[in-house]
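To: structure subgroup
Subject: Chain for Friday's discussion

All,

I'm putting the inputs and outputs inline so they're searchable in the archive.
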Amino acid sequence: MQSLDTNCDKTTYICKEDNYKFYITKPNNSTWKPLQTYLRNRRNLTIEEITFPKTNSNSKNINRQESSIRGKLEQAFQNNFIKDVLLPRIFKNYLIQPFFQAAWDLDRIFTYKNNLWEFELKHKYPIDNYDFYLNIGRPNDSRCLCFGINKGQANLTAMLAKQGMNTLHLILVKPRWSDSLDPGYMFIDDDAKEKTLIIGTVLDLDKIKTIITDTKDAPTKTSFSGSKKAPYYQIPRSFFHVIGQYSDSRNILAPKIQALMDGKLNSPLTTEILLNNCLERKTHTQKNEQYT
């Protein structure tokens, strides 16, 4: 925070929540102001002029949402569900987002060997372009079964890398390659646990420069509003190493994550490993041109 205040003194703010209300101040300032009032004044907007985000009904899956909340999140967070789950989403989507063209957050910032790192953890399955690459005789191409990263997140990662802050990018690979399923199955289905890979890569400046060269457009359902296509980049499969399975203990996973950060992990992710840990593939209908 001291570094941000020194180098970005005009753009660094601290926010807090008190009794379901949010407030804002500058570092080393004891005066707290209501967050949305402050942002309205900075943007010269009346309450009526604030445009809150709307989500296209076609991109909503109410059953999946309720399954996640009532089936797992409430039990996992118990008495902290409102503060740890609901309020952060209200803060980002309805208090911050309306006043900016785009808003991006960081999962965690931590220190390792006297260096600052960013940490990102995702759960997703690869872009299923395997049949295309198999048909052209290149199933081991680094772009075969690659992974997507949102353009905004990639650009933020690049900004951090330019300041010397690498990103530890981990993925829980869904064993069922379908977006119609609530991802919570990975945590309660024993077969899925055994097939859920944990993979990772260190996104330094050289890797980010390689990634942010050619944007693709994801389906509208993946965007914030569900009404426009979401631009993304592809992270080559060859950038990733296998850390283990979700069912592995921390004693197994932690040393491998440390080895990954030290550049000493040698367990490259292959197409065979991904396919061997896949329990279900949906029918792939995207145009081949996307992968060439």
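Points worth raising on Friday:
Residues 284-292 have pLDDT under 50 and may be disordered.
The first strand starts at residue 14 and ends at 18.

D.
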